[in-house]
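Researcher: For the annotation table, I need structure tokens for TetR family transcriptional regulator. Please keep the output clean. Sequence:
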Amino acid sequence: MGEKSEKKKQYILDKAREVFSEKGFKDVTMKDIVDACDISRGGLYLYFSSTSELFLEVLSADVHEDDEEAVGAALSGNASAGDMLALFLKEQKKEILRKKNNLTVATYEYFSVNKVSTKENPLKEKFDTAVRIVEKLIENGIDSGEFYCENPIGCARNLMYVVEGLKITANTIGITEETIDRELMFVLEGLVPDESNS
């Protein structure tokens, strides 16, 4: 695909992301994407054959972009493991609270009616990458004496399950920043060694 075609495809993905964020997944038609992009139906079908294909591509692009930034931030620099974990969680909190361009509703609508193999599921990939990042940060914190944890992978998974639950809560019944902070701190308190037992 040439550079012009790549730019056109990216333009379609950006516009589709806006449409899916606004309308969810189940109510979006190819006509909605055509209208948002101000292109012909044939022009859209040159790149994508269905809203499902388009949505998975939007999700996949989203996942890879987030992962590259998060992995780089989590594993580089001279900051302490605690500072890096706090930075990682700050980014997760922003995602939980994000109202504009949020794909959470569309994502859950899509996956509630479409069966996608585990290997092809961009959400699983994103979740697994986040778990690996948190696990590495916890291990670094254990090595430096900042954290105590007998099961870093279990703790990392638990933390990311809490984050996913908070995302759903934010988009269904609503949530405050204070609630997010409280729930994340509850999980993190288990990592800090108890000085009174030393």
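Researcher: And a one-line annotation?
Model: The chain has a mean pLDDT of 85.
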